[in-house]
Write a structure and sequence with these properties.
This protein has about 270 residues and is of the alpha/beta class. It has 13 helices and eight strands. Strand 4, helix 7 and strand 5 form a beta-alpha-beta unit. Helix 3 packs across helix 13, helix 6 runs parallel beside helix 7 and helix 10 packs parallel to helix 11.
Length: about 270
């Protein structure tokens, strides 16, 4: 089994948590207490990690929020990765895929240069576009399957000639593509009516489940239906619902207390499935 998968499953059992904290760090939303600092996003991330690391088993870095700021943003991403807890899974939410030689370079960027534990990828160019990622057998590869956005109905839920929706065909393929247990899928929490069937169809895959909180997905259903038979192999990502607590904060410490309270509440709800 992949090193990354074993690591995060150990954390899931030890912390009785499925919490993945999404670092979708928007400079326009960073609380005022950080804005006078020389590296506001970096210090914001540092505080979020400090406040949540006892409850979280993974951290997901949404690369678009860093790439959009050019070199400064990439430096923030790289330095954020350096202080993520080593026992927690680090995910590059990059949604990459391209013809083989380009994907090889993407895989090197995120696994060799930045040394993320996992990455999100898109399946619609076929296996040759994803094989360079799956070649990293110790990592985790999360393939977009049934996403939480309304537009998932445009393609993912459309039936193929055999009547099978496209997302189930993706699920079939990913189950074959995985190596050393390094395959996973992204399944939105807003799709709870399908989540149970997807888990039954793919008992050996690792699930990354976004859509709880701001997007309206049910935390209870995602926790109960997403885990495997060992109450492992699932992560529930929450971004805005953790990192942007309501209110003004007079100090970094006050901000961290509010974030910690959000994470503690989520973990306590997730713990009910164990």
């Amino acid at each position: 089994m992949s090193t990354a998968r074993n690591k995060v499953n150990e954390q899931i059992s030890a912390k009785r948590s499925l919490l993945c904290v999404g670092l979708d760090s928007d400079p326009m939303k960073v609380p005022g207490v950080f804005r006078s600092m020389s590296r506001p996003v970096l210090e914001f991330n540092r505080s979020v990690v400090r406040a949540t690391e006892q409850y979280a088993v993974a951290f997901k870095v949404n690369t678009a929020f860093y790439e959009s700021r050019g070199l400064e943003g990439l430096r923030d991403m790289e330095e954020t990765l350096e202080f993520l807890p080593s026992q927690c899974l680090s995910i590059a939410d990059a949604k990459r895929a391209d013809i083989g030689n380009t994907s090889t370079m993407y895989a090197r960027a995120f696994f060799d240069h930045w040394n993320f534990d996992a990455i999100t990828v898109a399946p619609y160019m076929g296996f040759d576009s994803l094989e360079p990622f799956f070649d990293y057998e110790e990592k985790l590869i999360f393939v977009l399957c049934l996403t939480s956005n309304p537009g998932s109905s445009d393609f993912e839920e459309e039936p193929l000639d055999r009547g099978m929706p496209l997302y189930l065909r993706v699920l079939e393929k990913v189950s074959v593509w995985g190596r050393n247990g390094n395959a996973g899928v992204v399944v939105g929490a807003t799709k709870s009516s399908q989540l149970s069937a997807i888990r039954k169809a793919a008992p050996g895959l690792f699930f990354l489940i976004p859509g709880v909180g701001a997007q309206g997905g049910s935390l209870q259903e995602a926790s109960l239906l997403g885990v495997d038979e060992h109450t492992q192999s699932a992560l529930i990502n929450v971004s805005r619902g953790v990192i942007y607590p309501e209110g003004e904060f007079a100090s970094v410490e006050a901000f961290e207390e509010a974030v910690a309270a959000k994470a503690a509440h989520l973990q306590s709800e997730m713990e009910r499935v164990f």
